[in-house]
Specification:
Chain lengths: 257, 603
């Protein structure tokens, strides 16, 4: 206790001394617009201002069941600079020729900190159900312990609210064999029975996938996935004769460019 | 034949030799000076495979220095270790020709660009007027396609240097070569044999693609990460599973990897010695008992090399072109763009392997000193790859998992240390450009809380390896510095970066968001580098010497490229005696191009 107090006092003291010194910081390379005219208008280095273009299909998988195999995809593409990027996210499930859970986002993404981006734009639920349009706003990035995380809030054209939270983590078993737990949750303020959405926690799509990176950009995987409706949505699904949820054995390929 | 196949531009009129450079000054043709090499400097017979088109440097110096050189920049099909590229190069070889000059003379270099894009040649470490320095945008506008630019400057210095393109990542693809300048006065390090040993990498992946991959996944080329499979070994080394786990969590919490040694690895690089892949076995001949001078140049894009010749002591006699008091070593680390001249004296009639392993131990460059052509020495196994520690994070000697209390306490110690460091100068009040601790932002991932003086360390992975390894403190110039004035100003710069986003810079800003560093002509300045990143950065200041403050007083070594070790603080003195716009940057080319670059304006 005493030690803690002493440390605290010491820290306060150090803080005060620090304030008295109030060092005047000045960077020799502080930005001065127009201070240098580059000969021939050539920037001596170029790539720090470049735009980059990448896309990744995190999931492209068949989910096996005796009654029929579903196909699921989840991916994104982005284009832009270090700070400003255009993101397109897309996911959906094809089951028995019917497309469901089709969420497509177009987002402007702005880097705001070391690991986090702020994202805003539009989401369209585009599948064989009724189409819904949402305004979207959220964050995407890397949480502590290298945990990938996205959380997006939505407001629909009908004044409803929703949210999507997803996260994943890569466990390196070896440098090429990687175990990835992943989960995505959707929440809504009001039910939307025609889209099998319920108020509150509405559905979850989760998986445990074991991929092998044949090369960095191409990794086949096997996994166990669960897709299901929760709470109120579970009742809605039951009422409509849909299965409330299922565990599937899945086979897929993770790839990117 | 190959040239025709790949649609090369026809050799320009007057092109007579297999190699498109010639030296007029003494009417010496390529053919003549090849045949005149028997003079004792460099008897060499290349192994058969080394004669393959595109990548063959004998490492032999031209027999005589020349003042006039015609250098043609062209695309050449180069295939090495199964990796082919249509590489920009000089004279059709990678590396390009060795340019031998004479101190005190004025050289004229006619560089003709036959590429379909702008090119440039920068004379690395050579003190030239700024308009001759060859950096597009700062020195001149570059050499447009089809045009010839004539560089002309007087040589005030002697020693081993090199040249490379400063345009559009051409350097990363092979546009580089060695420069040797003979001193006017008798060379104290003259030897029976004299070879250039040019270290580099070769890949068929385009620079832009490499950077693009790193932008998407920063550990794209790292296949030596800590995994579940490697955990038992770590636990053994750490003493317990708990200790190993704690260490892992500490790194993971910071979103960093202790295994982050090199951004680009042997996964795509073949490491080269004089343009030879390891299995091509470059040979440098000697007769037992002869003294052999090896001029090591690291012309790589992203790789620091650890060099040794098992069985031979190396006498380091020159660093970055300037003579130093001889230091006997078994091994030395050479940062990108540095040069070291060493003298060896092989006494036995056997082959000695020149072994240059990459810092991350994913591969090595190799050659052989041999009494007869075609011989091979034993190739030693590579050392274990280094693992970054809290020292590299700028946390001093803190063990992972130690609390902040400890840290602030040791922080005090560091302050005391720092005072001591500054104290011995006892000089009038100095103007200090101190940017303060860099912000943690989009472009910066870490702040070194307790940066240490690491000039006495040979570098990560080399400490206590049982060999005598060179460190910066051992470099002592053979003559006192030319400018005895104390600095009137200190410029503190933090080296920063965000590995995750693959952005690099100084003071938490990349090049495009920064102003020039302004120096008054004649000003004497101390540059202090604090490395907040967890990687080495070889920092190169064009046009002006960097006089490393390594405790050697007036005999501090003059360098053009200084490796800043992770988590370190170091300083060097600069006399701003040549006006103009100079490039100042990390010589890991992808760090440079992604923002670790500044313009230094002397006026």
């Amino acid at each position: 206790m005493k030690a803690a107090l002493a440390t605290a006092l010491f820290l306060v003291g150090a803080g005060a001394a620090h304030a008295e010194d109030s060092p005047q910081y000045h960077a020799a390379d502080a930005p001065v617009p127009g201070a240098v005219t580059h000969l021939g208008n050539i920037m001596p280095v170029m790539m720090d201002q470049s735009s980059w273009f990448h896309g990744i299909l995190e999931q492209a998988e068949g989910r096996y069941a005796p009654s029929g195999t579903d196909f699921r995809w989840d991916g994104e593409v982005w284009y832009g600079t270090d700070y400003d990027r255009l993101w397109i996210k897309s996911e959906g499930t094809l089951e028995k020729g019917r497309l469901s859970d089709g969420q497509q986002d177009i987002l402007y993404s702005r880097a705001i900190s070391t690991y986090w981006n702020l994202q805003g734009g539009v989401r369209v639920d585009l599948d064989d159900g009724p189409t819904r349009t949402w305004g979207a706003f959220g964050i995407q990035g890397l949480a502590l312990y290298q945990f990938e995380f996205q959380a997006t809030g939505y407001v629909s054209d009908r004044g409803r609210f929703g949210a999507r939270v997803e996260g994943s983590y890569d466990f390196l078993l070896t440098n090429r064999l990687i175990l990835q737990p992943q989960a995505e949750f959707n929440l809504y303020t009001k039910s939307d029975p025609s889209r099998l959405a319920g108020a509150g926690l509405s559905d979850v799509d989760a998986g445990l996938r074991l991929r092998y990176e044949l090369w960095r950009k191409f990794a086949p995987y096997v996994g166990v996935t669960y897709s299901g409706h929760l709470t109120q949505a579970r009742r809605i699904a039951r009422d409509q004769g849909e299965k409330p949820g299922s565990v599937r054995f899945s086979l897929g390929i993770r790839s990117w460019f | 034949m190959v040239r025709a196949l790949y649609g090369f531009p026809a050799p320009f009129p007057g092109f007579q030799h297999m190699h498109s450079f010639s030296s007029h000054a003494r009417g010496l043709t390529r053919r003549r000076f090849v045949t005149s090499l028997g003079a004792g400097a460099c008897l060499i017979a290349l192994p058969q495979q080394a004669k393959a088109e595109g990548h063959a440097s004998s490492g032999c110096l031209p027999a005589m220095p020349s003042n006039t050189w015609d250098l043609k920049v062209s695309r050449t099909h180069v295939s090495l270790d199964g990796k082919s590229m249509h590489a920009p190069s000089i004279g059709g070889t990678v590396p390009g020709p060795i340019l031998r000059w004479k101190q005190g003379e004025t050289v004229t270099l006619n560089v003709r660009n036959t590429l379909d894009e702008t090119t440039s040649i920068h004379w690395h470490g050579i003190r030239v007027p700024s308009e001759m320095d060859g950096v597009p945008g700062l020195s001149f506008a570059g050499i447009p396609p089809g045009e010839t630019f004539t560089y002309r400057f007087r040589l005030h210095q002697s020693g081993t240097y090199w040249y490379h393109s400063h345009s559009n990542m051409q350097e990363a693809m092979g546009l580089y070569g060695a420069i040797v300048i003979d001193p006017i006065r008798p060379d104290p390090n003259a030897c029976d044999r004299d070879y250039v040993v040019f270290l580099g990498e070769w890949t068929d992946v385009m620079p832009h693609d490499i950077v693009s991959n790193l932008k998407m996944q920063d550990d794209y080329y790292v296949f030596r990460q800590r995994t579940a499979a490697s955990f038992p070994k770590e636990a053994r080394e750490a003493g317990s599973a708990m200790a190993a786990l704690k260490n892992r969590l500490a790194w993971s919490r910071m979103n960093m990897a202790a295994t982050d040694i090199a951004d680009v690895s042997g996964a795509i690089y073949t490491y080269t010695l004089n343009g030879h892949a390891p299995d091509m076995n470059w040979n440098g001949l000697f007769r037992p008992g002869e003294r052999v001078r090896l001029r090591f140049i690291n012309g790589a894009t992203m790789t620091l090399f650890d060099v040794r010749i098992p069985g031979l002591e190396m006498l380091v006699v020159q660093a970055d072109g300037n003579d130093v008091e001889p230091v006997p070593v078994d091994e030395f680390r050479i940062g990108v763009a540095e040069t070291y001249d060493v003298i060896v004296q092989p006494k036995e009639d056997r082959a000695y392997t020149i072994f240059a392993q990459s810092e991350d131990r994913t591969g090595f460059a190799r050659g052989t000193l041999a009494p007869r052509a075609g011989m091979s020495g034993l190739i030693p196994p590579m050392d274990p790859r280094p693992v970054r520690t809290m020292v590299d994070m700028g946390m001093g000697d803190m063990k992972p998992g130690e609390s902040m209390d400890h840290m602030s306490m040791s922080g005090m110690d560091m302050k005391g240390m720092d005072m001591g460091h500054m104290g011995h100068m006892a000089m009038p009040k100095m103007e200090v450009d101190d940017p303060g601790p860099p912000p943690l932002n989009v472009e910066n991932q870490n702040v070194a809380m307790m940066p240490m003086d690491r000039t006495g360390s040979p570098g990560d992975g080399l400490e206590n390896n049982g060999r005598r390894v060179l460190n910066y403190k051992q470099l002592r110039a053979t003559r006192p510095g030319a400018d005895p004035r104390p600095p009137s100003r200190e410029i503190i710069l933090h080296l920063t970066g965000n590995m995750e986003r693959y952005i690099w810079g100084f003071n938490g800003r990349k090049f495009s968001e920064s102003g020039p560093i302004k120096l008054k002509k004649g000003e004497r300045v101390r540059f202090t580098l604090i490395n907040d990143t967890m990687m080495e950065h070889p920092i190169h200041l064009h046009g002006l010497w960097s006089e490393l403050e390594n405790g050697q007083g007036d005999y501090r070594p003059y360098k053009h490229t200084i490796v800043s070790q992770p988590g370190s603080r170091m300083s060097y003195l600069v006399t701003a005696d040549v006006p103009g716009m100079w490039a100042y940057h990390c010589h890991l080319l992808y760090h440079m191009d992604l923002g670790m670059f500044r313009t230094v304006l002397v006026s």
